[in-house]
User: Fold this.
Amino acid sequence: MLDVTTVREDFPLLQERVHGKPLVYLDNAATTQKPRVVIDRLARYYAEENANIHRGVHTLGERATVAYDSARETVRRFLNAAEAREIIFVRGATEAINLVAQTYGRAHVLPGDEIVISEMEHHSNIVPWQMLCDEKRARLRIIPITDTGELRLDSYAQLLSDRTRIVAVTHVSNALGTVTPIAEIVHRAHARGIPVLIDGAQAVAHRSVDVQALGCDFYAFSGHKVFGPTGIGVLYGRERLLEAMPPYQGGGDMISSVTFERTRYNVLPHKFEAGTPHVAGALGLAAAIDYLATIGLDRVGAHEHELLSYGTGVLSQVPGLRFTGTASDKVGILAFLLDGVHPHDIGTILDRAGVAIRAGHHCCQPLMARLGVPATARASLALYNTREEIDALAGALQEVRELFA
Amino acid sequence: MSGELPPHRAGVRGGDPGLQVLYQEVILDHTRRPRNCRAIEGGRQAEEYNAICGDRVTVYARVEEGVIRDVSFLASGCAIVNASASLMTETVAGLATADASALADRFHRMIAAAPGADIEDLGTLTALAGVRMFPIRIRCANLPWEALRAALAG
Assistant:
């Protein structure tokens, strides 16, 4: 069992009060709070190790380079990638997806080709592909979802064709919590030789991810959604594909030699990391991953699953409340509508009770259109949430109902 | 400026002065029973959209000889968007378009004023002054006025 009381003490921000009430932080799908070890790691880097990497011969440069390379190894273990050079540090999941679209995509997609995504993607896994399609006169094909928020695999199978150049699907829906059947998606794409990119932004803080077991070709996630800093994220890419891809950005570190006539690009992973990277961010992310390892993602998953069941039960007692997203396999996301009350008003009133949730379209406007709603309210759970916080949410929702009665 | 609170609701807002001001009875009344919530055929119209939250409001106006003879709205949004649109249509009907634009400026100054700063009394519109204590909701209150301006300009 997870000792939540002890875990909560690791997160300084969870001790805060909002409008005089204890903070009930249920907006973890937007960003997670940071444990003390992550905050301290950033401070220690700047206080004791700060130097540019892969350059100086001095002691600090050496120290920073070792730490940065070791952070890459930590991420490799976290995703169970075969090689550390398959781990590219980027700004976040958004940049990771843009990188693949702008390099692999531009090199392989021709007019008339197709890219397959799903109806419940975040804008960050829609727009980069749309931009590519516009440039290449290619076509975006959309895997539809069921009313409960699950991918329609029968339709997916029919969408794949000889023109499909890549499949890009979320691992976990940020708006609904649905966990998608990645192995199945990959299996069908690979049967036709089509590579698969997985947007793992909402998955990595809740489930252990093994990119080799999943079989995917690219996997993207953001550090700040897994208790790490903002501004750092990861693209995992299969070595064979990364090797063949053109670079993303040009600059320092991504080259092995430069003359005005010609530049030779550096080896992996440096080929995709132009300029001085976010060293502190990478170290902070590694600290977050190490922290998560001491707790154990299996225990995190079990705790959140129990909390999701409890929350589903408690919230379904709130009159007029209707859930959006009731897939059989879900992470801890409780998205809902309340009769006669707009989600923004719910969000404002809950905030005054110290309860932080997200209200809006969750950067999923096509999904909202599919559900026929302009917006939803969303409580999203993480390892430090408790039953008492779910009760506080339910209590505050009763107040919302009374106010708008 | 808030109306009599029914006892079962006094408890909620009574516990939070901010909510009491934001969701006062006038606002809730206009949210529940929006006035002039309809389309006007053949007049001017403009839609405003808040990309951050997805709220949408369309304002319709029939203008004759520089005077707003009829004005209405349709909205998909929160209580504040709906109440603000409803109160706006009641206030600007019969005004010269120039006066309506000037009122839009005064309204924006009121809702964007720093909390604690003096604000102009704009009659029933003053019911929306509470949004100045909720900075992210200021745009909600202003959205219908932006649409009105666009409709009058168009």
